[in-house]
Amino acid sequence: MWEGLRAPTPPPFLLAPLPEFPFLARMIFSRRCALVFLACVLALPAVAATRAQPTRPGATDNATAFKGAIVIDAATGQTLLEDRADFSGAPASMAKLMTLAVLADLLKQGRLSLDSNITVTAPDTRIGGTQVWLKEKEVFPVEELIYAMMIQSANDAAYMLARTAAGSIDAFVELMNAKARELGMKATTFRTPHGLPPANRRLADGDLTTPRDFALLCRHLVLRTDVLKYTAVKKRDFGPPVRAKAVEMVNHDHLLERVDGVDGLKTGFTNGAGFCLASTALRNGRRVIVVVMGSPDSKTRDLKVTELLARGFLALPIGGPAFRSELPQSPVARAPLPATEQKPAADAPPVIKFSLPKR
Fold first, then answer.
1. Boundaries of every domain in the chain
2. Annotated catalytic residue: which of 30, 67, 88, 93?
3. Best exposed site among 10, 75, 285, 350 by fewest CB in 10 Å?
């Protein structure tokens, strides 16, 4: 019964024309102009504030900046700051610091000498990663190979030194682990003299340590060895006079000559370990050691270590003992000149400076 029915069409709604008021249109236009002008004035402080903000990225949260870190007073061994300091991971090339510690013991015992010439063998030339490209039958003194291991982070040099010093790599690794036990590094196991990962890439089968353990090693090195003689060097040639063309070695530690007082110790990186750095600096007679492991990239690592060095010096007890090494002090890497006096390269990493309050 409802078929064929449609809603009725409403009659058209007629609008009467509005009267014209020219002065009203002018008033509306003037008001709109005033509102636009006011909005622009109010926006100026916000724009200025945005432009005034520094271009340098903000501080990275510790949770993502590293997997573990510790800061200690080198003179006393006191822990100044720590964050997941018992994180267990691969030290990567930082393992070469233990290689140096063992070599230092053998040098003191007279079982090795810095000017001893040793010959490259075929196995020494087959080590991957960073190297100085040793060639079979080349002959180099022990000290030149130590420079290569610490500046270039040369894996072939570390392997060659370990093989020569102990007769075999396995025997040298035993010495590394014995030294770790002597220093109280309870959560540390070494399996290589260079820090390269195992063939199966399983972290558990490679070198393992913690920031807390590694700080013990670093303190031993700065107190009782001349490690800083090697780690404070920014650039050095390897090869002459044995080679016609030298390998220009550049230290992987970006903080050298950029952060005040930094003179060591060692960087490390593998995909499994992330970016690691054991660093130390001497300021006003006090020395601080920082160990950071597992950073996502080198820039984050370097900025965080720089921050931790500054915080470490601020955390030192007032009137605490000055640092005293058993060996002569290393040449300290000073911070660069101000930007007004020295123009950095366009691709250079950022220069970090701090003004510490006087006590």
1. 64-315
2. 93
3. 10
